[in-house]
Amino acid sequence: MTITPIELSRMASLELLTKRVDPFVIKATPDECKALAKRFHIVSIDFFEAEITVKWRGGKSIDYDITGRLKARLVQSCIVTLQDIIENIDDTFDFRVVHPKQMEELTDELDEFQDIEFAEDDNIDLGEIVSQYLALSMDPYPRLQETPELSILTPSTQKKNPFAVLGSLKKER
Fold first, then answer.
1. Which residue of 50, 52, 122, 134 is most buried, as measured by CB atoms within 10 A?
2. What phi, psi does 161 have (nearest 5°)?
3. What is the spatial distance between Cα 9 and Cα 125, in angstroms, rounded to a whole number?
4. What is the mean pLDDT of each run of 10 residues along the chain (173 residues)?
5. Cβ(44)–Cβ(138) below 8 Å
6. What is the Cα–Cα distance from 54 to 26, expressed in whole angstroms?
7. With contact defined as beta carbons under 8 Å apart, do 79 and 50 qualify?
8. What pLDDT score does 6 carry?
9. Residues near 31 by beta carbon (within 8 Å), at least 6 away in sequence
10. How many other CB atoms are there within 10 angstroms of residue 17's CB atom?
11. Which residues are paired to 124 by β-bridges?
């Protein structure tokens, strides 16, 4: 079995993070940015950071709300011309961390669109999670604005009637 290394790993204790007044900040190193760019099949990631706040929902079990904001500057290839496109990302995210055994108890109160992460204890890899949110925030089909090179590839706005030829034959009789 091959174990794939995690490009941006930041293991954190959720219990300790709930006691922080300021947000927990994750900044990717240049090597981590390079590894993430390779993973996402993009040209490069120049900058990537995330600020995370953790709130315990109470009770005796693992149940945390995590909110955050990620910022990144990356370069992707245009899907038409393969030219580099710079994309600046500034996005927010939120999800809930619960123990897997709690899912049956929580099915009624969970929002169907809420992201859920599972944790056996209060440790979680926030680096991997923010990396996944970065992938979701990227433009899936990056394309340059209309340029002369692209004008030959885009369809004309005026469509010809396929029956126009038949109409001209009818007039000739």
1. 50
2. -75, 125
3. 6
4. 75 86 92 95 96 84 88 94 93 88 68 75 89 94 72 62 72 59
5. no
6. 14
7. no
8. 81
9. none
10. 20
11. 12
Phi-psi region of 59 (alpha: psi -120 to 50; beta: other; left: phi over 0): left
**Nearest Cα to Cα of residue 142 among 28, 60, 38, 43:** 43
Per DSSP (E only), the strands in 16-160 are 24-27, 44-56, 63-77, 84-98, 115-118, 123-125
Please check whether residue 47 is in contact with residue 72, taking contact to mean a CB–CB distance below 8 angstroms: yes
By residue count, the chain amounts to: 173
Residue type, 135: A
AA identity, residue 125: D
**Max Cα distance, the chain (Å):** 89
Which residue type occupies 104?
E
> What pLDDT was estimated at residue 57?
82
Q: Note the pLDDT of residue 155.
A: 61
Provide the residue type at 66 as one letter.
Answer: I
